[in-house]
Amino acid sequence: MASMEELAREALFQGDFKQLAMILKQWQPTEAEEAYEAYLNFSGYLAIEQEDWKKAEVLYDSYVEKAKREKNWENYHVGLHQKAMVLREQGHLDAAQHLIAEEAEILTQYFPNDDYRLAVNLYEQGYLALLQEDFIKAMPLLEKSLQLALTTDDLVLQGCSWRGIGQYHLAQGNNGNAQEALQQALQCFTLAEDSLGSAGVRALLEQATLTETVRREENSEDKMI
Predict the structure, then answer these.
(1) How confident is the model at residue 217 (pLDDT cuts 50, 70, 90)?
(2) How far is CA 137 from CA 62, 75, 141, in A?
(3) pTM of the full structure
(4) What residues contact residue 215 under an 8 Å CB cut-off, 6+ apart?
(5) Do residues 146 and 183 lie in contact, with contact meaning Cβ atoms separated by under 8 Å?
(6) Are 142 and 165 in contact, with CB atoms under 8 Å apart?
(7) Which residues are CB-neighbours of 224 under 8 A, at least 6 positions away?
(8) In the chain, what's the furthest Cα-to-Cα distance?
(9) Could you tell me what percent of the chain has a pLDDT over 90?
C-alpha cells in the first residue's frame, strides 16, 4: 500500500491539486514524525497553486528553520529553493535570487558532485536572470543546467532545462530555436508522464508558433509593399 507521501507526490506529479488537498487533509503528521518536512513541502506546493503566498512563505520558513536547526543541509537547500520559487512567483526576483545564491553556496559545500542538485539550482539562476531580462547571464546558466541534467536519468529535470532554453529563445524572438528546444522539453515531460510539465510546454509552443506565424505574415506584407 502506498504511503501518504507517495500518494501526495503522485497527485502533485499529475497536477491533481484537488486530490493533493484531500491527501494533505487526511495526512496531518506531527513535527516529530519523519514525514513532516515532506508534508510541509507538499502543503507549500498547494498554497502556491492556490496563490496563497503568505501561507506558502510561512510553510517554507518553517521548513527552512527546522532544517537549519537540525543541520539537515539537504532539506535546508530544498527549503531555500522552494521559498525562492514562492518569491519568484510573486515577482520578488531580487529576493529570490538571494536565496538561490545561498542555496548554491550550500550545494558547493555539501553536495559538490551532485549533478542533479547543481542542475536544478543553475536552472533557477538562469530562469531568474531571464525574467530580469539579463540575457547575457541567463543563457550560459541554462546551458550548464542542461549539460548537467543530461548526465542524470531524470527526464523532468531535462525537460525543465530544455524548457528554460526554449523560453530564452522565445524572449529573444528566435522562434525556430525556441520550437526546437521546447519540442525536446515536451518529449522529456511526455516520457516522464508529467502532465503538468507537458501542458506548460504545449502553451509555450503555441506561443512560439503564433509568434512565428505573425512574423512570416509581416515579412510577406513587407515584400508586397
Answers:
(1) low
(2) 32, 28, 7
(3) 0.88
(4) 173, 175
(5) no
(6) yes
(7) none
(8) 73
(9) 88
- pLDDT computed for residue 187 by the predictor: 98
Q: Which three cell numbers stand for residue 133?
A: 531580462
The rounded distance, in Å, linking the Cα atoms of 57 and 123 is 21
Which residue in the block uniquely carries the three cell numbers 503555441?
A: 206
Distance of CA 147 to the CA centre of its chain: 17
> What's the 3-state SS for the chain?
CCCHHHHHHHHHHCCCHHHHHHHHHHHCCCCCCCCHHHHHHHHHHHHHHCCCHHHHHHHHHHHHHHHHHCCCHHHHHHHHHHHHHHHHHCCCHHHHHHHHHHHHHHHHHHCCCCHHHHHHHHHHHHHHHHHCCCHHHHHHHHHHHHHHHCCCCCHHHHHHHHHHHHHHHHHHCCHHHHHHHHHHHHHHHHHCCCHHHHHHHHHHHHHHHHHHHHHHHHHHHHHHC
Calculate the alpha carbon distances from 32 to 75, 133, 140, 142 in Å: 15, 43, 42, 38
Question: How does residue 210 score in pLDDT terms, banded at 50, 70 and 90?
Answer: confident
For 141, the grid coordinates are 546558466
Q: CA 90 to CA 17: how far, in whole Å?
A: 20
Q: Dihedrals φ, ψ of 19, to 5°?
A: -65, -40
